[in-house]
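Task card 7
Instruction: Convert sequence to structure tokens.
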Amino acid sequence: MSFVSAIFRNFLGKPGAPDFRDSAEHFVAVLRETGIGLTWGKDELLFIDALVERLRSANEYRDAVGCYFGEIVVRNFGGDWVPNHALGPAVLVKGRHVFPLGWVYRRADGGATECIAKKCKKEIGYPLDADQLGSFTDAGERVWPKEAP
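Output:
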């Protein structure tokens, strides 16, 4: 991010795609330090629900998880951030809107009935089996679903 673009964005007071990307990258770095090695691969969508569940009591992480989730969609499915969508920050992918931050908040507050993986399957067609999701051990290691690699 250039100095001029940072001033311009701060002057406007509205976050843009670079802000969401920066937040996601910082979140990945912080979690790697705590033993959860997140990547940018599309299979991370198998673990988004478990990640939200693990961090749901830490409200300060909700936006960061949402940014991370959105960046996974952008990087793997050709999406673009739409920061000023009427319903909140969105990612436009395959002609459809995904609302990563909103979905994370809904999942954290609403539990399993607000499954992010099922919403992703409906909107972008992945993961193929939204009922076979991964989880994390207490130490932060991944537990892969039976059908995943």
